[in-house]
Structures are given as C-alpha cells and as structure tokens.
Amino acid sequence: MKLTTNQIFDFNKHEDDSYESEIDYLNNKFSKKGISVDEIIKKLGSFNVAIPSWALGAGGTRFGRFSYGGEPSSLEQKLDDIGILNSLTKTAGAVSLHIPWDIPSDVNAIKEKAESHRILFDAMNSNTFQDQPHLEHTYKFGSLNSVHKNAREQAVEHNKEVIRIGKELGSKSLTVWLADGANFPGQLNFQTALQNTEDSLKKIYSDLPEDWRMFIEYKPYEPNFYSTTIQDWGTSFMLANACGEKAMTLVDLGHHLPNTNIEQIVATLMLKGKLGGFHFNDSKYGDDDLTVGSIKPYSLFLIFNELVYGMENNSQNPDLAWMIDASHNTKDPLEDLIQSLEAILIAYAQALLVDRKALYEAQQESDVVKCQELLQDAYRTDVRSLLKAARKETNAAINPLEAYRSFKVRKQLIEERGTSSRASGL
Ligand code: LRH
Ligand code: MN
Fold first, then answer.
1. Where are the alpha helices (DSSP H) in 130-218?
2. Ligand nearest to C-alpha 178
3. Ligand index nearest the alpha carbon of residue 287
C-alpha cells in the first residue's frame, strides 16, 4: 500500500484552513520579539525523525501481546509502513534498523525500496541481549561485560557485523544498548564488568569507519533488576570519552529514574560535545515506551528548550540523531507514531518561541519569576498551526491522523496482510 502525492493534495484541499489566521496572530506577537515564525515553519518542515523498525507492530509485555492486524512481517513491509508515515507527515524520512530482527535478505532490493519511499538508514542497533539459535555462547550472564571471554568476543564480532551491514545500506552510526548487569548483589564484580565493557567497546570502536559515530545508550534497570553496567549518563559519557571522538552518548527518555532532571543532562552533554542523539518516548514509571508527550509534555518542552539553546551555542556538539523508541500495546502502531511525531514537533516549535534575549537578561538579574514566565509563555502557546503550515509547504497531510483514518490505511493493510501477520521486534 502506498499513499500518492495527489491523494495528500486532495485531502488537504478539503481541510479547514482557518489555522492561517492563527499564524498571522503568532507572526504579529513574536516578530516584536525578533522571532521569525516563518523561520520556525521552515525548521519544522525539514525536521526528520528516524522510525524504529521494531515499533511497527503491536508491542507486548510479559503479561501478553494483542495483535493489531495488517502488521508488517518483513523488512520490505516495514519500509512500506514508514513510507506511509512519511507521506502523511514528511517527518519520518529515516529508519533505525535492529539486527538480527531486520537483516536485509537482499541489500540492493532493500535500498531501492527505501529510496522509493525517500527513507534514509539512520543508526543501526546491535542486539546482544537475546541469544540466537546460531550463536555458540549465551548472553544470559552478559555480553560486552561478561566474565566469559568467548561471550565478549562473540558480542564484539556481532557489533562489527552490524557495522558491515550498515555500511552496505548507507547508515552512518551504530547504537549499542546493553542489557548487561546483575539481578542480585554479589553476582557481578562491578569494576571487572565495567572494564570488560570499556575494552570491548574499544574493540568495536576500532572497526568504526571514519565518518561513523557510535552511540552508547544507558539505562538504569531492566532486564536486570539490581545492577546495569551502563546504568546512567555519567557511565555512558565516561565510556564515550574512553573510546574517542566518534563515540557519543544516547539519551532514551525512558531510561531515567523517576524525577531525574533530563533537560539538565542534555545541557551538560551538549556543553561537553558528547550528546549523540535521542530515543524519544514517554513514561510514567519505568521504561514504559509510551507515546511521546503523552505523560510529561512540559518535560519534553524543557528538553527541547535546552536542545535549541545547545544547537545555537554549542558548535562543539555535532548534529543530533533524532529517533523514536516506543512500543504499542493498545494503540494502532502507525497512529501512535503519528502522535509521537506531532508531540516532538510541538515541543520543538514551542522551544523556538522562547524569547532567549529576554531570558538571558532575566537570568542575569536573577528575576526568577520572569524566567519562568518567559518559558511558560512559549510552552502555553498553541503552535499546531505552525505544524499545519509546515506540512502544507512540504505536501504532507495538514492533519496526518485524520488523513490516516480517512484513507482507511489500517483496513487496507489488513486486507493486504491479514490479521495474523506479526512484525519482528519487541
Ligand atoms: C532498551 C531499548 C534499546 C533498544 C530496545 C528495543 O530498552 O531502549 O534502545 O535496543 O529498547
Ligand atoms: Mn532505546
């Protein structure tokens, strides 16, 4: 199934364009502060977020999984689904593959398919948190941190294989997330585990092409529930520095203990030039992988507020990799991803409306109240009209979710693929 430019164009023709008067109001209000609404619309139009190949089917938990019908059961079909997302939003022009869940059977065919949907290959994800039938050594007691040398070497080789596949596809980065850790005190020598991890990462790093980057993703717990070797931003930062300038940290929003000040972590890593990218999602308790902006939208805004400041002031930090990492237990995966893309663009647009000159002055004067008012003025601004204008300009659907439903995409996918097709992934 594919959505054509004409279908989107026709859909937009029937859409209510009253949002244009809102843009005039915003233009009038913010141009006085030297903020160009047209500039923001352009930035929104060129913003691209990588879609995780493992989040196009119904997710699940240990308590169950409820299929959704019409799920993609091959990498080709996953790219078709991302193609639909990109036709509707023009914000989903990249995919982040997970190996071995998405090993391309025919690299050239996969590249052609991706090109036909104008999809780029973003970060490749390795997987040393699951055993595979063909593997000799288990990862049950760790991979890169393992006391078992053969498990470490097997995991290093796997990451080198993922880089090799990524090079063929045109990807330029590798994400390493390790489940490695322990469930009980005494099970692990923390120092040996960390040193093994550092030494193993350096072996992977030595195989990284010159123009590639390696993202080290941290997580406090799960699937290990007492210790995780790369548990927090500091450990990831330390390991990235130990590896070299091509190694960066990766911030998955769900990988923080409750009440962690994630926006401060973002500011710190950007100042140090070591923020590589994001896995966007939202959570109430743990690594819930819920729709972006569905639980803590103000926190997402505060994170983008630091990102915008960093992108304007930290030339030492390279361009960021924007990715979603979510799991859909009760929503149509494509609708969930459309909502997440919307939330990301809204937070970005609001952060671009912050009057940074006035904020700097208020901070210099320690005018605490004014500082908050300046941030919340931007956060309390309804920017959805700017997103609509950006979509109109890029010939995306002005209202992607309504378009998705009016085109009856899920119904067509079920007619094509049936109700029992199942996507590989979590
Ligand atoms: C770990 C994680 C990681 C992926 C996995 C699918 O929780 O966030 O980024 O490998 O989810
Ligand atoms: Mn993640």
1. 149-169, 190-205
2. 1
3. 1
